[in-house]
Each structure stands twice: as structure tokens, then as C-alpha cells.
Amino acid sequence: MRSVVLKPTVRCPVCELPPRWCICAAQRDLACPLQIDLLLHEREVARPSSTGKLIKRLFPAARQHIWSWNQPLAAETVINPERELWILHPHGHPAPSDVDPGNIQVALLDGLWNETATMSRAVSSWGRLVSLPMRGESRYWLRAQQDSGRFSTVEALLFLLDSLQLTKTSAELRTQFELHVYATLRARGRIDLAAAFLADSMLPQTIPDYLASLQQRRPL
50 with 40: CB under 8 angstroms? Predict the structure, then answer.
């Protein structure tokens, strides 16, 4: 498998894919009443497959904070005192019902599983720990899933949007997420895996014309 991390190549400065598979033309800015704060592990900054960085590209109002043990984040640099901070956590309490998303700030932890587990312990006292009913299989086919029930950062946000009935934003984000996964698989030369992913994807229905243009052979 070809890795765009281990074997650096020319990449789009925005989507971080090789020019042949650049998906910037399909990107759409998304709006959301939630305040989204991304806590990116410092190692995630160099990973083109990061879905935390995908969220930041799609939601211009989202804020990004780099997590480093050498420079720990102070709670006051993240917490918005005018909103209730939710930290998504598998051992948290169920999300309250009938809440106004405009009053909520969500902190999303982005990194490998062991990295986010360490980050979670450090920030768990900052706000309300919220557990979401995450079911099904992850569509994040870019990294090995260590066991079932684990999802990418963007999928956690998708579950949250659905629970808050922000269905239009959720649908738009899911299309962009699946396009990110598909194009990255193609950029890695995983043609068969990309075809299998596309077979169960909504992309042929949501962006058929763009998908067809992306699949056409183009100059490298």
C-alpha cells in the first residue's frame, strides 16, 4: 500500500491529496449552530487522512487547537463560558433531549485511539461527558479499526448532528466524508478497496456528476 505520509509527494495544500485526486472542487462550506472545537493531537497534523482536519476545512467557524504534552492546552483557551461544553466520551451520560444546539460547544478529540484516550483523561473535567448511541460499522476505511464500535472523529460528529436533528448538515457532511475516504483510497492505489467502498456509498446518488469526472483518467 502506498502511503502519502511515508513517501511524500506533491499534494494539494488544502485537501492534502495528490493533484490527480484533489477533491477541492466538490468542497462546500458548512454551517452549524454548534460551536465546534477540534483538539488535534500534534502527530495528527502531519496525517493527510485526518478527519479532524477535514472538519476544519468544511466548517469555517470551527476552531482548531493543537494538543502537545510539551505545551498543554489550558481549559480557558478552549471553553466558551457562554455555552455548555460537551466532550464526547464512551463512558459519558446520554445526551440530554430537547436542547438548543446554539447553546452547545462540542470538543472533538482527533488522533489515534491511544492518543485520544490520553487526551480524554486530561480534558474530562472541562465539561459534560456525553455518550452517543454509535451503532453500525465505521466507514473510515483509511486506518485499521482495532475493534468494533470505534469510529472516526467526523463520524462522532455525524452521530451528534443526527441526535440533535441537524439532518441537513449531517447529510452534507457525510457526503464530504465519504468523498474524502474514496479519493484517499484511490490515491493510495487501493482500486479494489475503493470500489468496494463505493458500492455501499451514497456518493453515486449525491454527487454523481462530480464522481464521474473524478474517475475519468486525467494527467498525473
Answer: yes
